[in-house]
Amino acid sequence: MKMSTLDRALLLITVLLSAYQIVVGIDDLSTAPIIAYTIAFGVLLVAGLLLIILGFDVLESPIVVIVSTIIPLTLSLGLVWQHLASYRTVYLVFTIIGFAAVTLTRSIRMPNKLPVITIAITHGIAGVTIFLLPIILSARGQMNPLFSLVGIGGALIGIGGLLLSFLKTGKPILSRNTIMRLFPILLLLTTAFFVTGFKFG
């Protein structure tokens, strides 16, 4: 499917927002959250650039499923590390095991449902963490209400990640053309909600 000028414009805005977040949006945090957020937005930036340059064909690469797992895992790790100190070690272990499991099940051809189950569990836990934690913190008054926008971004990136993952496993939730049409706007909205939530939350 050919990428339109509008798609490229949306992706360019996504890249610029990601660059802004890396350079300006994660100051005054401890080392671990800064590293986690930098990785997440760095992957978003690189993904946007590759899509602009290479078009939707880049999504055919087998590594897409693995890369699409890095963003929710590192973002959720940053949030947990920043706001749930008692769960830091447990969640760090989950992040490492989850990423290793997705990488392993996508690198070795497996005829069973293990790759799909692994992706669903990993994306599910990370996505729910990004979605619920900012909303709960905002509702309790521990963070500005606008921080809940990070949660909305988490829901969107979870949807995007699952759409791509199931497309690559040969069990697409939507048709390929529909996913390609939705992807640039989904990526932009996700990034915009993240940046706004972190900036004003």
Note the main attributes of this structure.
single chain; 201 residues; mainly alpha; globular
Report on the structure:
The chain has about 200 residues and is mainly alpha-helical. It has one domain. Helices cover about 75% and strands about 0% of the residues. The chain is built from seven helices and no strands. It has helices spanning about 5-25, 30-55, 65-85, 90-105, 115-140, 150-170, 175-200. Helix 3 (about 65-85) packs antiparallel against helix 4 (about 90-105), helix 3 packs parallel to helix 5 and helix 5 (about 115-140) runs antiparallel to helix 6 (about 150-170).
Strand-helix topology:
Blueprint lengths: L4 H19 L7 H24 L9 H20 L4 H20 L6 H26 L8 H21 L7 H25 L1
Helix pairs in contact: 1-2, 1-7, 2-3, 3-4, 3-5, 3-6, 4-5, 5-6, 6-7
